[in-house]
Amino acid sequence: MINFSYQRPTEADSALKIFADNSTGDKPARFLAGGTNLVDLMRENIEQPQSVIDITRLPLSEVEERAEGGIRIGAMVRNSHLAAHPLVREKYSLLSQAILMGASAQLRNMATTGGNLMQRTRCYYFYDTAAKCNKRLPGSGCDAIDGFNRIHAILGTSEQCIATHPSDMCVALAALDATVNVTGTSGNRSIAFKDFHRLPGDTPELDTNLQPGELITSVDLPSSSAGLPSIYRKVRDRASYAFAIVSVAAAVKLQNDTISDIRLSLGGVAHKPWRASIAEQILRGAKPFHENFVKAATAELEPAIPRRDNAFKIELAKRTIVSVLSELTSKQGGGQ
Amino acid sequence: MSIVQKVMQGVAQVMPDRRADELKDEHRYLGQPVDRLDARAKVTGTALFSAEYPIEGLVHAALAFSTISKGSITSVDTTAAEGAPGVLHVITHLNAPKMKVAPPFSAQGDPTSGTTAVAILNTDHVTWNGQPIAVIVADTQERAEHAVSLLRFSYKNEPAVNSFEESIPSAKKPKDVLGESPEVTTGDPDAAMKASEHKVDLHFTTPPYNHNAIEPHATIAVWDGDDKVTMYDTSQFTVGTANSIAIVFGLKAQNARLIAPFVGGGFGGKGALWAYNQLCVMATRIAKKPVRLAMSREGVFRTVGGRTPSQQRVAIAANSTGRFSAFIHEGVTAQSTDNNFPEQFTFPPRHLYSMASYRISQTVSEVNRVANTFMRAPGESIGTFAIESAIDALSYELKMDPIELRLRNEPEKDPVSGHDFSSRHLREAYRMGADKFGWSKRPAEIRTQRDGNWLIGQGMAVGTYPVYRMITAARVRINADGTALIQTAAQEMGMGTATVQSQHAAERLALPMEKVHFEYGDSSLPAAGVAGGSSQTVSIALAIQEAFDKLLKDLLSLAKKSKDSVLTDASFNDIRAAKEGIFFKDRPTIGETYATILKRAGKEFLAAEKKTGAPLEILKYSMHSYAAQFCEARVNEQTGELRISRFLGAFDTGRILNPKMAVSQFRGGIIMGIGMGLAEETMFDDRSGRIMNATLAEYHLPVQADVPNIEVVYTDIPDPITPLGAHGIGEIGITGVAAAIANAIYHATGKRITTLPITLDKLM
């Protein structure tokens, strides 16, 4: 870890100003929230910011109902608090389930909503400065493509990077059509969740579409996503405290034994929380039958590219999608 | 076998047995669930571990590791590191003082504990990825670690053997495996295989595993002048490591002292001189200040070896009654290019079953990796996975209950040596385990139990571990106030050594426990053997017994010098220790307390020290511990996820000295076996030879949610040949566990998994 300056503003505006004053083009400052990922990365010399701005004192720690419907989650709301919040448990239980499947109780007590979105990949080669990694050092190559890649991505990969986004919470947020609200020196803007994280393409060093110096202030969940029957299913290598090999966030509503609303996203398979739009399109308006689930899952995974160790993820993702949709619809009396 | 070994073997056969220990059936303290003596110190944080000693003026060291697996260092740029704040010394092969290479591990004579022939920091040559290539000393740990990140090395690469698979074609038969032949053969097992209708022939693969004790390796070293050093080092072999340091730095043996009362888990990973403790002593010499070198978890992965990977073949044929007509166990393990440790994975079948013909044989190949080392039941852990899985497979071929098949092959004598067993009650362990586990309710057919998506099955396997004993010395002192002091150099690694030896000494000396003080964890005390091979408890017990026998004789002589003594007519055979003193065996009310004898003679204390002889009894008898491990597993048919829902171990390990601590140690072994079976695997990248998961985030150990309630039962039958009738139990717990899991999975799913760890992709 290198020496760095540390400041702890109490207003978003002053955080932005400190950022601007302490950043240069190639050496931006870093916002520090729960620190459950950034501090690790700094200790491993993967991140070496010269300025760290602690934003945990910003007034962004509330979960509120919005007048127009839905809820707004402050960026500094801790994961444990969010998972336990009555509004979330009642209306967006998918989010609650996903958060509680992640990390450990101790980490969830520290980790924040905004920080969770900003998690970086757990790729072994990203974490080892002796390895080649285009995400850590653009242009250096990718040791994962022909190396240990059992935990790596199968969808939306590029020849530059096959890393995955490690979050559980974000998989639920993707399914729930969340919006990310950010502030920056050029003003505030809102980013649809599907546009927040990026696919690696030729710029795997960029995980998100945040501009330098932009700060996440809150995450909105729309009323249209509220109250849907939902399941978050996480398949992992041990019973707790492991990242998803594959996870599925699903919310399905049946009307007259037909799927009237479906939200489906996958974790552990891509550089971003993967909204399964192809499968959704096939299933919207379809009967909740096993063969339809298989057809939809197969179509969604059709573009998947297996690497040396992760071909099993394609079949695992399909089976998990089918299993979750079957359980979710049979609970509502559908299916056959 | 060498001439010396042959002579020893011959002598051992005619040597009379040591008289059975009269304490083997005593229960005043022995056999009682006494609480750990150090429990309060540990939970309140007052027990000091190596990195925690408050030494005045301490400075801190950090290591840099090579990033290639073979080649030479062509240039070193230390400029930035030397200019970094707080940096005191940057030490590389260019300026490191010359050190001798420690002789390899040996528990005999003057013990040593070297792990590699590499002249660490005295060579520009690199032979494994992770080899220490620089030490930086700074005023704080953080500044030392930061400066390490500023070092720049250039290398000239040489072709390396990074891959175990690629090394196998050049594998060789080792000269010996822990003093035994690498191959034992009787009859023509290949012909018997061909002739048999009932047979299995399976290939198994086990991955490399790394040590992850809760306390990472750490040393504080302090020089006293130029020729004397004290180390606070997390060591499970205080004397061997201290001796090695003396050799490396050219000191008199008594001038290298190692202090290690508490060790935060060893499991075989702290039995030796590794780079870190040697380099800490070196850095201390240069800094002329006390230096602490506390390793990061990554540092432990890169510089402390672990369990070798293996590939094994087990082929077994049986006649229609289930008797083994042929038993073939062969395979290969890896060692580094610079050590000699062919892990003894073919030992279990040499002692477990009757076999009409057999070939048991092993080879070893060399890779550019950190030297492999002992890791809880080296050999038996991976060996039992293979043979006990294969026997399970054979039981289905024969349509015979797996326990019944094993019972039909239960030998009366050791199947290879022909020696009598000193104590073997495996049948009783099967019975106790099966009763408690409810084995009779298990359906014989596979895939018959289901709970929704989850398939359920039950399996069992045998575990085994030899009884070893190390040459060990102890001193027993009885004071005029009636208290006793027991001393030996051994350390408390968490298994309860201090507690159980205090129980033992109180029983042996006929004192209340509170009058016995056990002093340990210092190489300058009477030399103890390595806490390895599950031998520490019985080794120390015999040393205390022999020292006390001598002391008792001396005390009796002292008593008899006085006409006032009631013991004046007593000969040694007439008396025994009782009621805090010496009493007649046949007249238990007549005698004197130690205090009386000593005070009358005007002595403050009387002491005796003894060093035990070599363990010749293991040449005369087949001496082993046994376990029957029972597992219930649940497998998700959709995702392949695996959960262990029940586990039970039934142990035959001689007499249990402290049930509370013994059960805890059995459970710990089983949990480590669950890790070995389901989760752990060191990922060496074959391109670079580099470990890619050198962190507990990615090197998976079982978490609480992976471990079910574990039941433990034991036969508790004393072994007439061992001190106290006891066996060491540190290692037996892990053996057979991975096979029991694999066998339960087969019963649940019909899938025979032969590659560890059993991750969900293998079960989909």
Describe this structure in words.
The complex is a heterodimer of chains A (336) and B (764). With 336 residues, chain A is α+β, with helices and mostly antiparallel strands. Chain A contains twelve helices and twelve strands. Chain A has helices at residues 12-21, 38-43, 79-84, 86-91, 93-100, 105-110, 113-117, 169-175, 193-196, 277-283, 290-301, 312-331, and strands at 5-7, 30-32, 51-54, 63-65, 71-74, 179-184, 187-192, 215-221, 230-236, 244-255, 258-267, 274-275. Chain A has a five-stranded antiparallel sheet. In chain A, strands 9-10-11-12 form a four-stranded antiparallel sheet, sandwiched between helices. Chain A is globular and about 60 Å long. Chain A starts with a strand and ends in a 5-residue tail after the last helix. The model of chain A has no long low-confidence stretch (mean pLDDT 97). Chain B is an alpha+beta fold and 764 residues long. In chain B, helix 11 (380-397) runs parallel beside helix 19 (737-749), helix 14 packs parallel to helix 15 (536-560) and helix 18 crosses helix 19. The mean pLDDT of chain B is 96. The A-B interface holds A 1-3, 45, 122, 124-125, 127-128, 130-131, 143, 146-148, 150, 235, 237-242, 245, 312, 315-316, 319-320, 323 and B 67, 85, 142, 145-146, 149, 453, 638-641, 643, 678-679, 683, 685, 687-688, 690, 692-693, 695, 697-698, 700, 702-706, 759-761, 764.
